[in-house]
Each structure stands twice: as structure tokens, then as C-alpha cells.
Amino acid sequence: xxxxxxxxxxxxxxxxxxxxxxxxxxxxxxxxxxxxxxxxxxxxxxxxxxxxxxxxxxxxxxxxxxxxxxxxxxxxxxxxxxxxxxxxxxxxxxxxxxxxxxxxxxxxxxxxxxxxxxxxxxxxxxxxxxxxxxxxxxxxxxxxxxxxxxxxxxxxxxxxxxxxxxxxxxxxxxxxxxxxxxxxxxxxxxxxxxxxxxxxxxxxxxxxxxxxxxxxxxxxxxxxxxxxxxxxxxxxxxxxxxxxxxxxxxxxxxxxxxxxxxxxxxxxxxxxxxxxxxxxxxxxxxxxxxxxxxxxxxxxxxxxxxxxxxxxxxxxxxxxxxxxxxxxxxxxxxxxxxxxxxxxxxxxxxxxxxxxxxxxxxxxxxxxxxxxxxxxxxxxxxxxxxxxxxxxxxxx
Length: 396
Prior knowledge:
coiled coil; hydrolase; signal; cysteine-type peptidase activity; thiol protease; six-stranded antiparallel β-sheet
């Protein structure tokens, strides 16, 4: 009788080992592998996000350069038109120095011909210069349009990558929840296994059939507990995973927005509390000090060895405990929009449309600002009248 009980107990313990090995252990292993795979996907996607942001920043730099060139050409064209108009008015007047007097005051017929040729050449040259400038303006405008389209496409790519990151974050949480449940089930199974092994030993040591049967019942109960736990856990995990997956598919965009907004809100709150106490005159002084250091424009730079536009604003405000992201559009999220005419020293000035800015500077008052213009130039003071920003922003 006792021998049969021991045999039964061995079978019970063997069953329990099978449950633990093929159930919780395999599941936990699979889930751990899935978590590692999601982590790798997150890492790969983050690299793509960083590359996309770099491409976007470079395109926005080109947007700024094209805008500056267009503004310069427009100014030159207007000046050339004004000069031609002045020439036309001069030709209609009959006073000293007028073109008519220049032509009629010739000493001979050949001299008159030479003077006519001179005037014609001058007018032709002016007209040709004007036409060349118009052609250049059209060429730069066409280039800017192409860059604008590339910026729009890159923004869509960045948005998709952000959504992918949000989805992966949800998947990772789901898997961690699943792994936690499997780990808990595994712990229970291992505890039950220990109980069953102890029961087997108790059967062997039992001095009566009653004690042996009691020990066998304990081992059987341990197997039943683990089996039930695994079944319920598997069902629960499956349902949770399915529901979470559906929720993820239905709200991938909103998940991305929530993740991004949460990050922005947290940082903005910290920034707001610190920026409110920043002495704007100190900000202006710090910005002006950079213009005396011959700091070159370096795309992606944020140090005294080189900086770009958003790197400059981030560098200056970091001195006062305000952490700004190294991107013009992202920096918009840290300000309250206002018109350029309402800007106060220390405010940020932006070029481009709201939510799609491509250049930023620090306003220092009297219609002037400090910025890192573009490649080949150094940090310097600019004028609102020379190159006007689109809008201003005051740190929250």
C-alpha cells in the first residue's frame, strides 16, 4: 500500500515539474524574449527619430538661408527699380546733369553717337541687372518651395515615428504586465513544487496509510493550484493583451500625443517655475556677450566652439536654470505667443509659421536681437527692420 502511494506521489510530482517547466518557465522565457525584441525596436526607432530630427533641423536651416537671400534680393530689386525710375525722371528734365543735356551737349556727330551708345549701354546694363536679380529671386523662391515641401514631408515622417514609439511603449508595458503575472505564477509553481517534494518525502516517511494519504493529498492539491493559476493567468493575459492591442490600434495617434504632451507638460512646468524668476536683463547681457566671442555658426552646435540658432537660445537660458530643447519648433512649446511689436527683452523671436518655425533668436530690445545666422557667419546682433521675425514668444 505504501509503495503504491509513493508511486502515485512520484507521478504527482512529475506532473508538477512538467507544469512548471512547460508552462510558466516557457511562457516567461517567451515573454522576456518579446520584451527584448520590443526594446530593440524602440532603440532602432529612436535612432530613426534622431536622424529625422537632424534632417528636419538641416532643412529648416536651409529655409532660413533661402528666406534671407530672398529678402536681400527683394531689397536689391526694389533699389534697382528706384534707380531706374530716377533715371527716367532725369531724362524728362532739362537741367544740368540730365540725360537730355548730356546727349545734346555733344561736340560733334560722332560724339553724339558715342554718348547715345553710352546711355543705351547704361540703361541696358541696369535693366539686365534687374532681370538677373529677378531670375535669381525666382530661382531661390523655387528652391525654398522645394525645401518647404521637404520640411512638410519630413515632419510627417517624424510624426509617424513618434506614433510608432508610442505604440512600442504600449507594447512594452503590456509585455511587462504579462511578464509580472508569469513571474508570480512561476513563484507559486515553484513553491507548490517544493510542497509536493516535501509531501513525497512525507509519504516515504509515513508510518501509516492515513499519513501517507494525507501527504499525497497535499501534493495533489499543489498540482491543482498551479494548474488553475496557469490557466487563469493565461486567459487573463490573453484577454488583457487583446484588449490592450485593440485600444492601441484605436488610439495610436492619441497615445503619441499624450506621451509627447506629458513630456512637454512636465518639462514646461519645471521651466515655468524657474523662468519666472529669470532676470531678463541678465539674459540680454549673456546673449550680447556671445556676440563678442567670434562664435561660428555650427549646425547642431550648442557651445562656445560653435552653435546654431536654437543651440544659442538653449545655451543662454541654460545659464539661468531654464532647459530648452534644441529645436525651434520644440522651443515654441515653451512660450506664450505674442506679436513682434509686443516683444520684450529676453523674449524669443521666431521666423516661419507657428508650429513650423525654422529660425529663432533672443530679443534684446530697441528692435534688435542676438542670433546665430547661418553657415559662414558668427553669432551677432540683427535688426527687426533688416530681417523681420514672424512672431515672438515669452517663456511661460
